[in-house]
């Protein structure tokens, strides 16, 4: 403590020579001093009487106990020595003991202060009262108020914490007594009530505050309230009848004049009072409304998506579907049982167990009418905060029309490819016919000349005018003619045989073994009429004996389309050029063949589209845009290989063809 404690000495013991009465039930007669001493010893307070010269006149035993000192000091002791002893023991705190003792003695002489608290080094609190006596001395009493002070401190801390809690919570809180008068409130209550603090400090009643709120526009009358005009008392009475004294805990929402919506909770107390809490729920209501609108928008968007969407929980129960789903499977919103439904359930279990989605895949399943439809489906998991799968989302696009269109397109492409093959075959027929025409013409001329010579020598023979020289001339003419006939017939036979082979390959599409270099020669032979009218040459760098077990007709179609495409697009009319075909066998058992020309090349902006069906830059001149598309289809399909456009040095176009040997 910051005060001056006094050391408790002791009242003298009662006289030992006092005779004890024979009747122990009778009170022991005591003198006045003895009674005073006995009373001092029974007190819970420590008491000390000091005269003007600082001599201790009275000290009781309780004071010894309070300061935890031996009872060595008796009445008549010097008070200054007692104070010095306590100062040296640290009773008054750290510092110079003599200086501290001097200050304590000076305060004791002056009796200032008359009442103070002294906190001992052990933490106990003593309440010290000092009263001056007529002779210049003083009487000092010491009361141990440690427990009381601790209880008061705890209560103050609790009240402080309660006040901090009330002031920092987001709600307004007021306490009303049994007469509905305001007796306590926090800062938020002032804001939500719209009432100044000084008004609540005047202890108004609930009706008073409600009337004030109605008057200043802080409280709006409910929509179902009667029309009271400007009668504040009637409005107040009507509200109080409904919200003043509810029989049980009561919650209602109250619109305020500033646009906020306040939730009021009324709790009745046993003594008739109330606790009222006020919560601003404007943000929550706005958020709920935004959430509701968001859900409506999301539902509208999902319903507008032309795809089947459903959400199932882990046990396979459908929790959410969109309009397309319901239109597909009817009001029951469940796919008909069958193999497709079993596959879907198995995929749902896989997603639930693995936590991984299923990528888009094609499937076929019946709709509610039993009609088979093609779907492009995917499945995705929905997880909670712990990563556990709670729901499975399925999205399926109806690709029935697309699949039908693809089938029709494949049929159309097959027809176009067949037409292109027939066109190539017709071109081959025309070319072979043109090539065969020359040796046949020469043969006919030689035969005619030989026939004339036979007729002439026969006439001479019949007239018996034949000479040796005539016969020798006939033999020379016959020999030359027969040699000419034989060579041209062999040439025509070779052309026809080549035509038959290439035409048969293109018409039948059968698989057989063929020599790559020799077969390319045969294909080029069929293209010779087309090449003859240009200044473009085709050169080969392909080793002989490179046998391929494949589809020569399909390969001839690819090669013909590449060369004709170059003649149409790569070279202007009358321009000279060179096309080089090279091939080699790879160790992996594949053929790598390269096509290269020195034409104009393909612009960069259309290089990615050259294999697209019907894409052409020469449609005005009759090009169909199918040449390279057919090449790509044949190489990837029939030939089980690939074709790619290559970049290279200089101008021109380069293609890389790869296909297996067998």
Automatic annotation (TrEMBL):
Gene3D superfamilies: 1.10.287.130, Histidine kinase-like ATPase, C-terminal domain, PAS domain. Residues 431-662 form the Histidine kinase domain. SUPFAM superfamilies: ATPase domain of HSP90 chaperone/DNA topoisomerase II/histidine kinase (SSF55874), Homodimeric domain of signal transducing histidine kinase (SSF47384), PYP-like sensor domain (PAS domain) (SSF55785). Residues 1-28 are annotated as: Disordered. It is an enzyme of class 2 (transferase). Its EC number is 2.7.13.3. Keywords: Phosphoprotein. It catalyses: ATP + protein L-histidine = ADP + protein N-phospho-L-histidine. Transmembrane segments: none annotated. This is histidine kinase.
């Amino acid at each position: 403590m910051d005060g001056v404690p006094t050391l408790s000495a002791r009242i003298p013991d009662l006289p030992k020579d006092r005779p004890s009465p024979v009747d122990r039930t009778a009170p022991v007669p005591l003198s006045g001093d003895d009674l005073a001493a006995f009373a001092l010893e029974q007190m819970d307070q420590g008491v000390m009487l000091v005269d003007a010269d600082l001599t201790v006149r009275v000290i009781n035993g309780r004071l010894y106990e309070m300061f935890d000192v031996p009872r060595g000091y008796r009445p008549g002791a010097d008070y200054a020595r007692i104070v010095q002893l306590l100062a040296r023991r640290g009773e008054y705190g750290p510092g110079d003991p003599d200086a501290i003792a001097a200050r304590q003695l000076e305060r004791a002489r002056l009796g200032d202060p008359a009442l103070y608290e002294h906190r001992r080094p052990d933490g106990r609190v003593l309440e010290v009262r000092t009263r001056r006596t007529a002779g210049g001395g003083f009487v000092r009493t010491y009361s141990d108020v440690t427990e009381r002070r601790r209880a008061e401190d705890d209560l103050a801390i609790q009240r402080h914490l309660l006040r901090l809690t009330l002031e920092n919570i987001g709600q307004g809180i007021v306490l009303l007594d049994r007469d509905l008068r305001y007796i306590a409130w926090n800062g938020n209550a002032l804001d939500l009530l719209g009432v100044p603090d000084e008004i609540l400090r005047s202890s108004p009643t609930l009706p008073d505050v409600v009337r004030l709120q109605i008057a200043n526009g802080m409280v709006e009358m409910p929509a179902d309230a009667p029309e009271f005009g400007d009668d504040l008392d009637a409005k107040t009475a009507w509200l109080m009848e409904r919200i003043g004294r509810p029989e049980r805990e009561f919650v209602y929402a109250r619109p305020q004049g500033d646009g906020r919506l306040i939730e009021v909770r009324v709790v009745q107390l046993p003594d008739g009072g109330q606790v009222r809490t006020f919560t601003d729920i404007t943000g929550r209501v706005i958020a709920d409304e935004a959430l509701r609108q968001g859900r409506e928008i999301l539902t509208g968007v999902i319903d507008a998506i032309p795809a089947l969407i459903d959400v199932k929980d882990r046990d396979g129960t459908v929790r959410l579907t969109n309009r397309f789903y319901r239109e597909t499977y009817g009001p029951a919103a469940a796919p008909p049982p069958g193999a497709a439904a079993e596959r879907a359930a198995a995929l749902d279990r896989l997603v639930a167990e693995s936590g991984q989605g299923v990528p888009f895949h094609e499937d076929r399943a019946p709709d509610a009418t039993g009609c088979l439809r093609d779907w492009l489906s995917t499945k995705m998991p929905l997880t909670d905060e712990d990563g556990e799968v709670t729901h499975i989302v399925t999205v399926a696009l109806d690709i029935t029309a697309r699949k039908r269109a693809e089938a029709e397109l494949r049929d159309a492409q097959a027809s176009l490819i067949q037409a292109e093959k027939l066109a190539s075959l017709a071109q081959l027929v025309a070319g072979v016919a043109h090539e065969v025409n020359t040796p046949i013409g020469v043969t006919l001329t030689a035969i005619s000349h030989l026939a004339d010579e036979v007729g002439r020598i026969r006439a001479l023979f019949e007239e018996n005018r034949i000479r040796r020289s005539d016969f020798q001339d006939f033999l020379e003419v016959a020999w030359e003619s027969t040699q000419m006939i034989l060579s041209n017939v062999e040439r025509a036979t070779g052309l026809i045989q080549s035509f038959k082979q290439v035409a048969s390959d293109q018409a039948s599409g059968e698989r057989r073994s063929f020599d790559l270099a020799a077969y390319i020669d045969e294909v080029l032979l069929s293209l010779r009429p087309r090449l003859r009218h240009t200044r473009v040459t085709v050169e080969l760098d392909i080793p002989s004996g490179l046998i391929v077990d494949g589809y020569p007709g399909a390969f001839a179609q690819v090669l013909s389309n590449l060369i004709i495409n170059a003649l149409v697009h790569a070279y202007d009319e009358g321009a000279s050029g060179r096309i080089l075909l090279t091939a080699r066998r790879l160790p992996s058992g594949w053929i790598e063949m390269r096509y290269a020309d020195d034409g104009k090349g393909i612009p960069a902006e259309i290089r990615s589209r050259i294999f697209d069906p019907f894409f052409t830059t020469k449609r005005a001149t009759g090009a169909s845009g199918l040449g390279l598309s057919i090449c790509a289809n044949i190489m990837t399909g029939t030939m089980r290989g690939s074709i790619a456009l290559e970049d290279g040095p200089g101008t021109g176009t380069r293609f890389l063809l790869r296909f297996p040997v067998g």
